[in-house]
Amino acid sequence: MTKENLILLADAYKYSHHKLYIPGTEYIYSYFESRGGKFQETVFYGLQYFLMEYLQGAVITKEKLDEAETTLLEVFGRNDVFDRSRFEYIIEKHGGRLPVRIKAVPEGTVTGVRNVLMTIENTDPNCYWLTNFLETLLMQVWYPCTVATLSREIKKTVKKYYDETASEAAFAGIDFVLNDFGFRGASSVESAGIGGSAHLLNFSGSDTLIGSTFAKRYYQAPVAPGLSIPATEHSIVTMLGEEGEVDIFRHILNAFPTGTIACVSDSYNILRACREYWGTELKEQILNRQGTLVIRPDSGDAIQTLLKVFEILMETFGYTVNEKGFKVLPPQVRVIQGDGISYSSIPPIFEALKQAGISAENLVLGMGGALLQRVNRDTQEYALKCSYAVVNGKPINVQKNPLELDANGNTRVSFKKSKSGKQKLVLENGVYISLPEHEAPEKADQLVTVFEDGDIKATYTFNQIRKNATI
Q: Is 1 a domain residue?
C-alpha cells in the first residue's frame, strides 16, 4: 500500500467544493476521455495500478485525517474550508472505504478519440463531493495511456517500413525494434514504472527495469515482459583512450563470445570504428560469433550518419538482397540508433534507408526522454468532466459548451464541449462509439465496473492487455 495520504492527493481548491455544490446535491457522475490531440486513436492503460496502489481498502483513517487536517489548515490559513466531518463520515459509515463506483473500458482497449473511457460516481448521497475530489489522482491515468498510445503509433510506423522493405523472416523481430531507454530521463521512479510498462504493451525491448516490475506487481505478468542485452557505455569504451579503442572492442567481443551485444562506437570516429576496427581488424571474429554485434552511433545527424555507417558496413561485411529487393547485413551485424529518436524523427530515418535500398530489418532504435517524458496531458487532450448529477432527487444532465474566440475575434465551437448525461460505450461494426446511457438499449455497454465501495471488481493481466492493444 502506498505511503501517500489519499486525503491530501487532490488539488487544494477541491477541499472547498463540499460547500460550493448547490445544496441538495446527492450524486455526481463524471467521465474520462481523450478529446483529440496528436493521434486519432488512444490506448487505455494504467487505471488498475492507481486502484491497487491508492484506492482499494480502508484508505481513510483517523491518523491520515489528523495529518491532513494539520496540513490543510496551514494551506488555507482558515478553518472553514476543510471539513473533517466529511471524511469522518466515510470512516464511521464505510470503514474508511471509498463509496464510489468506477467503470472503465478493459485495459489495452484501443478506441478513437472523444470516447468515454472511464466513469466515476458516488454511491452514497452524503459523499457527492467525493467523485470529483478523486479527479486529481485518477486523471493521472493520462500518462500511461499516452505512453502506450505513442509507443503503439511508432509500432505502426515500424510495421509500415517492414511491410515495404523487410524479409518475412525478419517480422519476428519487430517487437524489439523500439527499445525503452527512458528510465534516467523520467521524472520519477513511479513514472518510469507505469510509463515503462505502458511501452511494453507494444514492444519487448527495454532497459527500464522498473517497467517490468510494475507489470509483474500490478498486472500479474508471469515473467518480466521487458527484455535487454549486454551493452557498453562510453565509460567502458574510452577507458584506454583513442589509441586503445580497438583493444576495448576486442575485449568486449571476448567478454561475450555468444549472443547479442551492443557497443557504442562513436567515442572518437564512428566511420573509422566501422571501417577499420569492426569491419577489418575484428571482422572475422564477428562473423564467427554465434550471435549479433549491434553497433551504436550516438552523435551527429542521424540520417547522414546511418547512411554512411551502413555504406561502410555493407562494403566491409557484405550483404544479401531480400525478396523485396533491399539490402540486408549478415545476421552477425546490426545497428542501433539511440540518439535523437522521437515519433517525428523515426519515419524520415526509415524512409532514408528505404530510398538507399537498405531494409528496415538492419536497424533497431532506442528512445529515452521522447518516449517517457516528452508527453503531457494535452498530447491526447485528456479530461475528466461531470455529465450527470442528482439534486434533491431530480436527475440533471450536465454539460459545458464554451463560447470561444479565435485569433481573429470570431466565435467558434470549442473542442472542450463536454458530453451530457450518463454515458456508455458501444461497439458498432468494430468501431467504439459513445452514447447517452438510455440510447441503443440493445447494445451492450463496453464499460466494466472495476471498482466499487473500496473493492476492485475486475482485473486484467498484462498478457490480456497486450492482446487487447495488438495492432
A: no
Residue 338 is assigned to a ligand binding site: yes
Per-position pLDDT tens, the chain of length 471: 457 999 999 999 999 999 999 999 999 999 999 999 999 999 999 999 999 999 999 999 999 999 999 999 999 999 999 999 999 999 999 999 999 999 999 999 999 999 999 999 999 999 999 999 999 999 999 999 999 999 999 999 999 999 999 999 999 999 999 999 999 999 999 999 999 999 999 999 999 999 999 999 999 999 999 999 999 999 999 999 999 999 999 999 999 999 999 999 999 999 999 999 999 999 999 999 999 999 999 999 999 999 999 999 999 999 999 999 999 999 999 999 999 999 999 999 999 999 999 999 999 999 999 999 999 999 999 999 999 999 999 999 999 999 999 999 999 888 899 999 999 999 999 999 999 998 888 999 999 999 999 999 999 999 999 999 999
Domain co-membership, 306 together with 359 = yes
Q: Is 184 annotated as a binding residue?
A: yes
Of 355, 373, 391, the one marking the end of a domain is 373
Is 334 labelled as part of a ligand binding site?
A: no
Q: Is 298 annotated as a binding residue?
A: yes
> How many domains does the chain fold into?
2
Is 77 annotated as contributing to ligand binding?
no
User: What Cα–Cα distance (Å) separates residue 204 from each residue in 7, 179, 210, 367?
Assistant: 37, 7, 14, 13
Note if the pTM is more than 0.90. Answer: yes
Residues 344 and 405 in one domain: no
Question: Is 152 marked as binding a ligand?
Answer: no
259 marked as binding residue: no
Beta strands in 304-437 (DSSP E): 320-321, 327-328, 333-337, 363-367, 382-391, 394-397, 403-405, 411-413, 423-428, 431-436
**Domain region containing 417:** 6-146+380-469
Would you say 377 is a known binding-site residue? yes
Can you point out the beta strands (E) in 35-115? Answer: 41-43, 100-104, 110-112
Whole-number Å distance between alpha carbons of 446 and 175: 29
350 and 385: one domain?
no
Question: Could you tell me if 231 and 340 lie in one domain?
Answer: yes
A 10 A CB-CB count for 3 gives: 4
The verdict on whether residue 291 carries a ligand-binding annotation is no
Query: Could you say which of 373, 393, 425 is where a domain stops?
Result: 373
Annotated binding residue at 296? yes
